[in-house]
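Could you help me review a protein record that somebody else here produced? Here is the record exactly as it was handed to me:
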Amino acid sequence: MKAAELVDAGRFELRDRERPAPGPTDVLVEVSDVGICGSDVHWYDHGRMGERSIDEPLVLGHESAGQVVAVGRDVDRVAVGDEVAIEPGVPCGHCRYCRDGRYNLCPDVEFMATPGTDGAFREYVSWPAEFVHELPPTVSTREGALCEPVSVGIQAVRRADLDVGDSVLVMGVGPIGLLTMDVARAAGAATVAVADIVPSKLDRATDRGADLAIDSRTEDVGDTLREEFDGGVDVVIEATGAPPAIEAALDAPRPGGTAVLVGLAPGETVPMDAFETVRRQIDIRGSYRFANTYPTALSLLGANEVDATGTIDVEMPLERIGDAFERAKTPDVIKGLLSVN
């Protein structure tokens, strides 16, 4: 089978590998579509993530879907011929976090496209059946691949305890931000504002229904929201990981509001006005990956509550993976997708 291996920063090689065979509780998926995530681009650019580096070739890609072509002897969850989305993290199943349903916090999770666990930029993936989800008839594999970023948005909205009628600010309208907008609407948000530094992304968010678009290069996000929403918004979801955006996100909730941090900022220190945070009783919550979200993501996609494919700007075959990554790095691109089979 063909597999695109990242062999060094900025360099993929397309290589032949042996097609995997599923174990007793696994399924073999012929991969159709794989999204390009910001973390994939980071690995591609730097050859490392934090303290982890590429010491041997690594297959990236953790947003994937395809068709089941073989199942292990103990599998009855899906069948050959089913189209499925692959949930990319497999937790230990035994630790305190797994036992209470928060398996996204499992310290021993095996997550696709990280050293030691290859991702889906290859023709076939063998994966535990428990983390393979059948697509509804109305959901394509292109949409199914994007269950992963939709799930990030679902997790963030759940962490926010968003209520019907709430006002929401989404900081950063890349793929996570745009999809989180849709999820927030589906959860009952009455008003959704967005902030970004790229005008074309703000235009895209407005076209998708944002009620207010703030160019944070020229406007103070907190002041604008306090003026527009009588003291600030109920919920802020920060989806960039950029320190200035995180700082603005902490200033934007109304008294008693909530700020949810989704974007990763490895090694960064962000100043916080502790007095104002306490005085205004702001809840600050982290949201890491996702748990128990794929069924909800598929339901939202099937009901057209979330427009996942509308985020795709670049689509290329696996053989052009280098070109796709270079294009995905440009500021005007929201999402790239690779067609594998």
Notes: The radius of gyration is 20 Å. The chain has a mean pLDDT of 96. The domain at 151-286 is CATH 3.40.50.720 (Rossmann fold).
